[in-house]
Design goal:
Elements (H helix, E strand, L loop, with lengths): L13 H15 L3 H21 L2 H14 L1 H16 L8 E13 L11 H14 L6 E9 L8 H17 L18 E13 L14 H16 L7 E4 L3 E2 H28 L6 E9 L3 E10 L7 E6 L10 H12 L3 E4 L4 E2 L11 E2 L5 E2 L17
Helix pairs in contact: 1-2, 1-3, 1-4, 2-4, 2-6, 3-4, 4-6, 5-7, 8-9
Length: 389
């Protein structure tokens, strides 16, 4: 979720300057003792700014450090995320953490985002506490399966949501989400849904099962995939789905972003197999880099073998520190081959980051090296979303 930031015009305010000074001091610290000094001041400053809704202050400090001091930028970004998801000040006796349980899904139909019934919440609670969370955790679940468009927008909104859900966790209650006025969900063939929760434990106690000596993350993931996935299946009728390990909100969201890229390719190949009754070996993939001022993403145009028309497409965005030196196209090619696609064309031309003027869909590379709209054959054109998230 940490991505290049567009620099804003204008001078920095006092709070932003202070954050830059504190983050730089922490990045340059040479000892744990000095770390603790910077940590205390930075946490106090961030808690106040988050409570006051100072989103612009946080972004201004991040913008400045992204260009001026990458180490300090990483420190500040980590601290902002940590304070936003930890609901500090809610309870003097508890550590609180906002967590997310992402679900990757694809469907020829609409992928739901909807209220979760009390019975399903009860089942999810049982399996989260049995397979993911530590023994002394108190848990509050939000009774809604969120789309990316419906998640809290910005650090301050995330902090406010974490505080509300954290209070419910301390009280041992789930949180009812008011859906009136909730943003509409953009529809894609492949997308992510999020189950959100807060956990509260006595100060200093373990939060997750893998912090205890008898289990590992891999074991927790295996159990959650089997048991938690079965609980989530009724919420996503008509969908193929894959769960991501529940984790701290921002870490889980980043992992979902990363996992969604190969998942989207697998979903696309499976969709074409079902929709056009064609095996993966009859699909050709064209991979190309797309630039704004710098490399932003790869796009994959999919055609049928021996034909030039792009019938579907997938976007593979760069995440975090990925750039031109990252061998992303090799990773994309490996996923395609694992799906059974054997004819793969890699284009080296720098394509512009363009979209369809009419519908806003990305334009994809064709075998001839042009960027075109992905169009299913006429008899299939209206049965599914046009492109993958």
């Amino acid at each position: 979720m940490k991505r290049p930031r567009q620099k804003r015009r204008g001078g920095l305010g006092r709070d932003a300057e202070n954050l830059i000074w504190l983050a730089t001091g922490l990045a340059e610290s040479g000892s744990r003792a000095e770390d603790r000094y910077w940590d205390r001041l930075l946490c106090e400053s961030l808690d106040r700014i988050l409570e006051e809704g100072g989103e612009d202050t946080l972004n201004a400090a991040l913008d400045h450090l992204y260009a001026a001091d990458p180490r300090a930028y990483d420190e500040l970004a980590d601290y902002i995320e940590s304070r936003a998801e930890s609901a500090s000040g809610i309870s003097p006796d508890h550590d609180i953490l906002l967590i997310a349980a992402p679900v990757l899904a694809w469907s020829r139909y609409r992928i739901p985002s909807s209220t979760v019934s009390a019975a399903v919440l009860a089942n999810l609670r049982v399996h989260l506490q049995a397979h993911v969370l530590a023994d002394k955790v108190k848990l509050a679940l939000a009774d809604f399966l969120f789309s990316p468009d419906q998640l809290p927008q910005g650090y301050c909104a995330t902090a406010a949501f974490a505080a509300e859900l954290g209070r419910a966790a301390v009280a041992g209650k789930d949180l009812r989400i008011d859906t009136e006025g909730m943003p509409e969900t953009a529809q894609f063939l492949s997308d992510t849904r999020y189950l959100l929760a807060a956990i509260a434990v006595p100060k200093g106690e373990a939060l997750f099962a893998w912090q205890q000596s008898d289990r590992t993350r891999e074991q927790c993931m295996t159990q959650w995939r089997m048991q938690g996935g079965a609980c989530l299946t009724p919420l996503l009728p008509g969908c193929a789905m894959e769960v991501v390990l529940p984790e701290a909100y921002f870490a889980a969201s980043r992992q979902a972003d990363k996992d969604s890229r190969p998942y989207a390719i697998r979903a696309s190949v499976a969709f074409l197999g079902a929709e056009l009754d064609t095996p993966a070996a009859n699909v050709r993939a064209v991979i190309a880099p797309f630039y704004d001022r710098e490399l932003e993403e790869y796009r994959v145009g999919l055609t049928l073998r021996g034909k030039e028309e792009v019938v579907h497409g997938v976007v593979w965005p760069l995440l975090g520190a990925e750039d031109e030196t990252t061998d992303s196209h090799a990773e994309i090619e490996a996923v395609l081959r694992d799906c059974g696609v054997t004819e793969i064309v890699n284009l080296e031309h720098r394509f512009p980051l363009e979209y369809c003027d009419d519908c806003g869909a990305p334009l994809y590379p064709s075998p001839e090296g042009e960027i075109v709209h992905a169009e299913m054959p006429d008899e299939h054109g209206e049965q599914a979303p046009r492109h993958l998230h």
